[in-house]
Amino acid sequence: MTRHLVSYLASFLLLLNLAFTYEPCFADHSSFSAQAVKGVINLKSADLDQSSVALDGEWKFYWKTLKKPHTPEIYSEFVSLPKPWRETKWRGKQLPSQGFATYEVKVILPHKRDQLAFKIRDMYSAYALYVNGKLIAKDGKPGTTKEETTPYWSTQIKPFPSSDTLNLTLHIANFRHSKGGITKSIEIGSFSELQAKSNLDHALDFLLTGCMIMGGLYFLGLYLLGRHDKSTLYFSLFCFFYSYRIIGTGDYAFHALFPAVSWQLAIHCEYISLFLAVAMFALYTRNLFPEDTPHKIIFCMTGICFALTLITLVSPPLLFTELINPFIALLVLYILFAIYIYWKAYRNKRIGAKYALLSTVAIFIIFLSLIFAYYNIAYPEKLSLFLGYICFFFCQSVILSFRFAYTLKKAKADAETGLMVKNQFLSTMSHEIKTPLNAVIGMSHIMIKESPRPDQKQHLDMLLYSANNLLTIVNDILDLNAIEEGKIQFVNESLNVSEIARNIISGYTNTARDAGIDVILKLDQDLPYRVTGDSKRLSQIITNLVSNAIKFTGKGWVKLEVSITERTAQDVSLKISVQDTGIGIAPEKQKIIFDQFTQIESSSTRGFGGTGVGLAISKRLLELQGSALQLKSEEGIGSDFYFTQTFKILEAIKKQEAVVNENPEEKPLQGIRILVVEDNRMNVLVVQGFLRRWGAVSDVAVNGQEALDKFDPLLHQIILMDLHMPVMDGYEATRQLRERGETVPVIAVTASLAPDAKQDMFNIGMTDIVSKPINPEQLLSKILNQTIRS
Asked: How confident is the model over 708-725, as pLDDT tens digits?
C-alpha cells in the first residue's frame, strides 16, 4: 500500500512540476531579453506583438521628490527595478519603507508595431505613471505626506499614444504599509494580447472563487442538515475565508469588479482571510483525523492565527503588515506539519488519508509558488495555480464525501442494530408483560365463573377490564412497531361482520352504562352472513373507534352503524361508522388527530388517558387494505369516524362449529386428556383451571424435552405448547414430534409472536395458535375444533 502511495505522490509531483512553470518575470516567455541601462531600455529588436517585455533594469531614481515630467534635472541615482525601498540605497544609506519617490526611464520602441499597452500591477501603496508627460495610469493618489496620499491596489492594462520613444515618469508614495516601493515588473506589449490574458486571469479567479463559495455552501449544508461533523463545518469556513484570497490578492480581480472598495477595508480583509483560513484548516485537520493529530500543537497554531486576526482588527496596516514575514515562515511549518499528520493517518489506514496527503502536497506547492512571487523570486502561471487549486479542492471533496458516505453507512448499521435491539426488546417485553397478564386475566375469568358475591363480581369485572386495557396498550405498541417495519400481515378468512359488531358492543355495554352512556348498534338488514377478510384487524379497528367514542363522550350515546353502500354478486362494500355525542374535535385539530401519540390537547390527555396510538394504528391498517379512515366532527357536538371497505361474499354454507357452552354444569371437554407444556407456574395454574372446569384431564411438562418424554399418543388427544422454554423450546419439540410420526394436534400458546413467524410455526407442524393472555372462550373453541376434526 505504501508503494502505491509513493507512486501516486511521484506522479502527482511530476504533473505539478510540469504545470507550475516558473518564469523570471510576469511577462510571457520570450527569447528576447532587454534590461534598462543607465535609464534607457532599447526594444527596437523586440517583437512586442508576439510577447510582452518587462521594463526591468536601471531606472533614474529621485528620493523624497515627486518630479514632474520635462522639468530640469536634479540629483538622481540609478537603482534596479523591481526592488522594494528597504533594499534600495540613496546617498549610500538604506531607505525606509515610508516616503515618496520618482522613477524615470526612456524606452526606445520598434517602428512597426500594433497598439501597445502597459500592464501595471500594484505598488506600495499608490502610484501615478506618466508617458511623455501625460498621465495614463494611477492607483490611488501619491503625495508627499500621509494625508495627501490615498493608497489603492489594482492591476491595470493601459494603452498609450503611439511613439517611437517613451519617456516614463513614475511617482510612488507609501505611508501606510510596511513595504514601500515597487516589487512587480511593469510590462509592455500588444494591447490585445495583454487584455486577453488579463481577462482570462480574472475569469479563472472568479471561476475558482465561485467554485469555492459553492463548495463552502454545500459543505455547510451537509453540516447543518447532516450529523454535524465538525470537519465538514471547518472546511466550509476555510472555503469561505480562502475564497477572498483568490480575488482579493494577486491581480486584485475583486477591485476591478468593485473599484469603490477602500484600500483600508481591502487590506484588512486580505490579512484576516489568510489568518482565519489557516486556522480553519488546522481545526479541519484536527477533526478529520483526531487520533493522529497532536491536539496541543493544533491549539497553539489556531491560537496564533486568532491572535494575529485580533491584531489585524485593532491595529493599522503599518503595524499588522509587518507580521506577514514571520507568518509565512510559520505557514510553511504548518503545511509540513499537516503533511506529517496526513502521512501518519495514511499509515494508520484512516478514511480518505491518501487523498488528504495528496491535496496537502498540492497546496504546499501552491503556497510555495505564492511565497516565491511575494518575494519576487519566481512567478507561477495563473492557469497552473488554477489547476493546483482544483486538484486540492477535488481531493478534499473526495475526503469529505468518503466521510459522509461512511457516516451514513455507519448510521445505517447503527439504525439496523438499534432496530434489531428494539425488536428483541419488544418481543421480550411482550412475553414478560403478557405472561403475568395471562395469570391475572385467566384467574379473573375462572373466579367470575365460580359464582362470586355481587361485590366480588364487581371487583373482578373492574380487574378484568383494567387488565384488558393494559393488554390493548401492549398490543397497540407491538402493532405500531410491525406497521413501521412493514411486517404487518393480513389474513383472508371467513368472518361475520354482524357477529363482530355485536360482540364489540356487548363487551362495552357495561362500561358505557356505568358512565351513563347509551350504546347503540344499527345493522343493515341485508348484510351477508359471511364474507372474507381479516376478522382480527377489523375487530381491532372497530374496537379502537368504539373505545375512543366512549372515552370522549361525557353524556348521550355512542352508535356503531354498519350499512351497505354497494353490492354485486361477488362483492359487498360496507360503510362502518362510529358516531358519538362527545366533546367533538376542532377543525385545526382534525389534521393531527391521526398522528401517533396525539390526542386533542394535553388537558384531554390528562382527563381521558390513553396512549394516542389507537387512531393512528386504525388509519394505517385501513390504508394498507386500500381503505381510508375519515372524520366528520364539530366541537361540542360530537364526532363521526367512518370508513368503507369491500369484502368478497362467501356462499351461505354453514360449517359445523364448536359452540362454547357457558353452563358450568356441562363439561364440553369431558374425557379428553391434554398435555400442557409450559414453564411458568402461574400460567400452568390458569390453563389447568380452565381445563378442569371444562372437564378435561391435564398433564404438565415444563420444557420441550420433558414433553417428548411424557407424551403418550394413547392418552393425550391435544398438546398445548408454549414456545419459549428452557432446555428445549416449543419449536424444536414440535419438529421432533412430527419427525417421530406423531399426528396429535399441537396448539401453540405464546405471548410474543413475530408477524412473519406464524407460517414457520405451521410449517414445522403446529396446528393452531392461541395468544397470551388466554381468552378462555377462544381456547375452548380451538380445542373443540381440533377434537371434532380428529
From this structure: 999 999 999 999 999 888
